[in-house]
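job 3f2a | input accepted
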Amino acid sequence: MHIIQPPLFDFEAFIVLKGNDRLLIVLEGLAAEKLLVALEKERWTGRKGYCVRGMWAALIAGVLHQCDSLAGVVRLLKRNKDIRMICGFPGKDEIPSEDAIGRFLKKLVRHEALLEECFRGLVEKLRQLLPEFGRKLVADSTDIEAYSNGHKKEKSDPDARWGVKGKHGNGEIEAETGLEGGERKGKRRDLYYWFGYKLHVLVDAIYELPVSFLLTPANESDTQQLEGLLEKAEVKRPEAKADFVIADKGYDSSHNCKMVYLDYKAAPIIPIIERPGAQLPDICNAKGTPTCGCGLEMVYWGRDGDYLKYRCPQVLGKAACRFLSPCTASPYGYVLKLPIHDDPRRHPPVPRESKKWQRLYRLRSAIERVNGRIKDFLGLRNITLRGIAKVTVRSLLGLLVMLAIAVGMAQRRRLKELRVLAA
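job 3f2a | predicted structure (423 res):
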C-alpha cells in the first residue's frame, strides 16, 4: 500500500529556512501594483501566456541572485524549485524562455515612468521609516561597460560612448571627457578608458542608500548632472530637504555651488580645484582662505549669519606678522567678514579649512561602497543588454531591489540588515 508522507514544515516556513525570505521581502516592499496592472492590460508575453506577476518576480529574483543575463534568470528558475514556486512556475516545463523574458523586459522599457514612480515611492517610505534620511547627500558616478566592442566602426550598441577619467596630483578625479573609438580601453598614463555608460547616483551618506539616479553615455561630464540628481530627489520639498551635498572635485563649479546653496538651501561640501593662477593676490588663496595684508592666511573663527568670520593669525599665535606695526590697535586683532552669497564656491557656508568640513567630506566614501554593491551584488559590472533604454531599466531594477530590502528590514526593525544584498 502506498502511503503519502506528510511534509515536516509548511511551505512558508520552508522558504524562511532556505533563506528565500529575501525575495519575498523584496516583492512585498516594491509596491509595484500600478505597474503590474498596467502590464496586465497589455497582451501576455510569449506564446504560452506567462503570468505578468510571475515574469516580474522572475526578473527581480534574477537581480537579487546576481544573474548577469536573461539566460542566467532561466537557469536560476531551473535549478531552484523554491524560487520557481514563488514566481508561479512550479514545473520545469512551465519556465519561460529567454526570449519571453526579453520581450517582458521590452515592456518594462515602455513603462519606465511607472518604474521610476516605484523608486520614488520607496525613497519616500525610507524618509518615513529612517530618522534623518536624506539630510546628508553624496553624489558620484560609476562606469558601466557596454555589451559591445567600442573599437568596431559599426557598434552593436549605438547609444554607448567612450569615457575617460583622469587622476591629478592627490588622486581626485578631475577630468572627464569623451573619446573616439580608436582609443584603447584600460589604464594608460593615469587615465582609465571604457566604452559604455555612466551611472550618476545621489545617495544618503549615513544609510548608504540611493535617493536618485541618472544614466548617461560615458562621455557626459559629472559636473552637469548634479542639478538633475537634486531635482529628481525633490530636495526642494520641506520633508525632503538636505542639509549638506557632498561631492568630489569633478563637481566643482560656481554654478553647482550657487545652485546647492541658493536654490536648495544646503551647504556644498565640494573641494575646490586649485588651478595655477586661481589665487586672488592680497585677498585669498586658491582654496578660498582670505589672506591679510602681509600674505598670511587668516584663521576661521566661526559663522555670523550669512557671513564667515576670520581673525588675524598673529593675535591668535598662528603666525608671525612681518610688519612692525599691527593692522589694528584693537587687542582682538583684525577681523574680516565675508558674505557667503557673493561666492559660495570660494567661500562656502562650511569653510574648507574647518574640521567640520573635513568630517563631512569623509562621508563621501559612502558612495564608493554603494557603487561597489550596485556593480558586484546587483549585476551591473557585466551587463548583457544593449541600448541606453534597456540599460537604464536594468540599473533601475537593481536600485529598486536595494531600496526594497532596506524598506523591508526597516519595517521589521532589523536596521543592521538594511544593506544586506548577498545571501
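job 3f2a | The CA atoms of residues 279 and 286 lie 5 Å apart.
job 3f2a | closed
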